[in-house]
Amino acid sequence: METDGATDGQCMVQRPMPDALRVGLQGEQDFVVDGPLLTDVGGTLGTHVLSTPAMIAMMEHAASQLVYPGLEDGKATVGFEVCVKHVGGARKGTECTARARLEEIADGRKLRFAVEVVTADGRTIGVGRHERRIVDARPGGS
Question: Is residue 118 a part of any domain in this protein?
């Protein structure tokens, strides 16, 4: 349920979440490790690999794109928590998939996801949890 701006002692109007947003919803985004996704850790590696910030960005992107079609008009999501482990390397040119699964909807606006990045041959590169919040995306909205 989503609640409209009531404070303590006020009546709260509740609206159901859109049917399209449900626990268990899954999605994925394919990508190739290249360009701005790369790091060589300041020249210390001798090769270019998927950077941790880029891996996290791909996880966040998969989660945001998963739920966006199910949001009410004028709404979007913003990430506010990430807890992931970067457990494997992916060199330049590696084909990967970022996956997101909606695990929980809390307070009608907090979305909790299980996220992972795997290579085309099934190696796990990163795994963890990510949280997003539904916000008003209209100009001047809150």
Answer: yes
Q: The tokens 């060589």 sit on which residue?
A: 40
Please check whether residue 142 lies inside any domain of the structure.
Answer: no
Question: Which of 66, 76, 31 lies closest to 51, judged by CA?
Answer: 31
Please indicate, yes or no, if residue 141 is contained in any of the structural domains. Answer: no
As for how many domains the chain has, the answer is 1
CATH of the domain at 67: 3.10.129.10
Indicate the pTM of the whole model: 0.83
**Cβ burial 66-95 (10 Å sphere, 16+ → b, else e):** bbeeebeeebbbebeebebebebebeeebe
Residue 68: DSSP 8-state = G
Q: Which pLDDT tens digit goes with each residue over 14-51?
A: 334 445 799 999 999 999 999 999 999 999 999 999 99
Over the range 30-40, which residues count as b (16 or more CB within 10 Å of their CB) and which as e? ebebeeebbee
Q: Which domain holds residue 82?
A: 2-136
